[in-house]
Structures
1.
Amino acid sequence: MTDLATALNSAAETVDAELEALLPSAEGSESRLLSAMRYSALAGGKRLRAFLVLSSADLFKVDRRCALRVAAAVELVHTYSLVHDDLPAMDDGTLRRGLPTAHIEFDEATAILSGDALLTLAFEILAEEATHALASVRCELVRSLAAAAGCRGMVAGQTIDLDLENMETDIATITRLQQLKTGALIAFSCESGAILGQAHGHLRRVLHAYAHDLGLAFQIVDDLLDAEGDAAELGKTVGADEEAGKATFVSLMGVDRARMQARMLADQASSHLDPLGDRVEVLRDVARFVIDRRA
Ligand code: GRG
């Protein structure tokens, strides 16, 4: 196993333990809702966004306990987006992270409510004092995550995605859609370490530029996996984009050009980090991992 794969697995275990502790136990009269939250949030996943939070926090020597809470909050928002994306009203997915999707395992109303509760729990965690001693830092984390997740971020990307079903479109539109739908949360993950570390604007801009290209490379590879991947290996429904008549980077560019573009973006993401020297090697490894991943 490569060093990065080992580091990713180890971070995923730590983040899973943090999520386990932060999620309410599935007891009492709301146990069905709480079980659904735990079912989706603890179902595994690469925890790539959490890894980006922890890696960027390490750059600024942030207390690991604070960084872990932010990493968990990001994974809760990400999980909510997957639960809602899988609903019959959206992608109608049946398999996620190798398990039946939340609305199949529970029911549609419980899946919707569990997504709502995962999203709101994320903000509760960020607002708590244990996340950072300074209220101004906590407030900036809440504001930035809300901006990344909301109507000028991920939700905007999702609505554009749904509007474009069976419509002619172009690369510029798909690029904007994906920057909002997937890129904004990845960008928050990369920048959150700088927020926690109260780093100055220049370093935040470097991380933002890195995250921008990384997010797009990640999405192009996701499209390639959706077109060519294996459901069992990926643990999720594949071919959904084509079935829904959705244009993707792959349908617009073809497989070979899409793969080339993903490589170019990953290299560009790395080169944004040049001013930071050797201490960002792990972020360069992430850029390579994103294009080589098989799941
Ligand atoms: C419902 C508001 C709302 C938004 C949904 C992110 C999203 C928007 C939908 C997910 C659909 C999708 C499969 C997008 C492609 C990129 C992506 C987010 C893939 C899944 O992320 P991974 O590969 O998943 O990091 P794991 O399971 O490893 O966490």
2.
Amino acid sequence: MSEIFKSFGYNPNEQTLKSFEKYYEILTFYNAKFNITAITEKNEVYLKHFIDSLLGEKYIYGEFIDIGSGGGFPAIPLKIIKPELKATLVDATGKKCEFLKEVVKELGLKDIKIINGRAEELAHDKTFREKFDCVTARAVAALPVLSEYCLPFIKTGGKFIAYKSNNVNEIKDAENAIKILGGKTEKVEEFDLADNKRTLIVIKKEKTTPSEYPRANSKIRKKPL
Ligand code: SAH
């Protein structure tokens, strides 16, 4: 499968390719039990899950937290290609976390933590609040809601990388939320992934997030900032 990586400018070594191969096997083996993905065909998984997860690779450094990791996207592919990253993966669903622990064990990944919890609660815990260089999230919520889940985790100067399909309205809708939470949209980058348009929104944290955020989930959802 090295061709698919090369066509997107990656040149993974044997070991890295083996890790992706093993991840693919685990994903398809456990999929029925853990309900991870609707996509199972090999080329599609590589493109729509693995390559897609890597699109933000150049923005992510140091210690990052992935909110709503599900089957591990984008965090696990990022960790495979950049093993020096320190990763924390958060998911509200216990079963998803069980799966992720299996992946970590089977792939022998180091410096990676799996936390079963809700972002809006963990973000008030001082072990996590404003402790990370970067935060990532893919397919978790619309940007105004997602910003409230994610921005509180980042240190001032750090980055929030939101993986999106179509961004245009969401960015406008999220302007107010991003500002209140201490962020500023720095870059919007578009990619063509076969027939899919993918968008990365890079938000820089410029100021501390006021302590009342994130609010309770019902409030976040009913009245996005
Ligand atoms: N990021 C993965 C999974 C997307 S599905 C991917 O791109 O394939 C969304 C996941 O987010 C689910 O696993 C769900 O349990 C989790 N989730 C949704 N809201 C959450 C919250 N507030 N805190 C933590 N996890 C959440």
3.
Amino acid sequence: MKKVDVVLGLQWGDEGKGKIVDVLASRYKAVARFQGGPNAGHSICIGDSSFVLHSVPSGIFRADTVNFIGNGVVVDPVILMEEIRGIEAAGVKVEGRLLIAKRANLILPTHRVLDATNEAHKGKGKIGSTLKGIGPAYTDKIARTGLRVGDIASADFRSKYEALRDWHLIQIEALGYKDFDISEYEAKWFEAARELLRFDIIDNEVAVNRCLADDVAILAEGAQGSLLDIDFGTYPFVTSSNTLCAGACTGLGVAPSRIGEVFGIFKAYCTRVGSGPFPTELFDETGETMRRIGHEYGATTGRSRRCGWLDLVALNYAVMMNGATSLIMMKADVMNDFDTIKVCVGYELDGKPVHHFPYEAGDADIKPVYKEFPGWKCDISGVRSYDALPQQLKDYIGFIEDFTGVRIDIVSVGPDRDQTIER
Ligand code: GDP
Ligand code: IMO
Ligand code: MG
């Protein structure tokens, strides 16, 4: 019996999950997305080609893998079909290799309008949603009013759709929101939903457990990051799903005892896109340099990402809740020219020291306590062995390992598949 190994982000998303899943997928026959939806943007660089995946699992560029979109994912047929066409245009076979859960909930065109309505209603307190309809789609799932991928093939799909759409329109009208027209998107949505039927629409919980029983290990691909988790993230500035390892169980239909390795990914610094607390955020030249050199602009919305120092208090919190068994550090190369590198090792909350990520993160005045490291001041993007990394970077890595109690097994030194160092 094989297990499900999980790759997930330990920060606020965009840690480099797409790159690492693509790298690790060469060792797996199956890759599975288990939560989130097209709010995700997972970048993959293979030589001169680069792709951004929103809904399709990042194992798709490894010809020997099958790729599951699990029941925990929310699917917008328009975005998914556009993405599939792009991948097929690059000469990659998708049919027969993409399996979509019947139980995955659908994002309707009106979910996108509701997202915009809710954000407009919040005004200054807006979440900074990607506006892909994620929150409203999960709201319908929990309210037991949603439509699912398995409904597409049913004879009364259109009438089910219209009933839910009309219910949304009542809510939108009540909020006085008028500036929208879904007719064009709705037509594309039906066309795309029908086209999805050329892929395998399955009971994923059965298929996934059959894989494991047949000795096929699965790599589960998290979206967003641990600090955007609906329960444990910086609520309400979070996404609407469980981004933690536990989400892989409910989002695929596997028991906790079937989870194997938990690969936790983090950047050597920290970023966040959208609103919400970020204790180590930099508003100065250093933050600007991270953004410029790290190309820290959203892969889904193009928004600039907020940048700051690595926060080990927040990282430890994420490591704890995920039970991370292995750490993967990304983008240290972005700090090649830094004279000094800071890392947050504690907080002061209202003048008192705290060593855990506090519930009050949103409201209180958190002051990070930093430890400083000398920079390595050389280009590491061409380094391919751990031993050849500069001692200053090894010291930085050693400190993080001691602080978290988990080994850093992979160090990524550039966006390409090849720029990956395994210890
Ligand atoms: P994801 O959402 O976690 O998959 O991450 P994104 O794709 O949104 O953002 C990560 C960005 O960093 C992408 O542009 C990647 O191509 C890039 N990237 C990944 N790993 C590295 C690395 O080690 N160094 C550098 N410089 N860029 C990287
Ligand atoms: P990947 O998988 C970074 C953020 C949004 C917003 C909040 C809620 O690429 O790491 P939503 O659209 O879910 O209503 O947005 O969550 N967010 C992400 N930030 N990476 C992501 O995905 C994100 N998905 C959502 O910016 O603050
Ligand atoms: Mg991303």
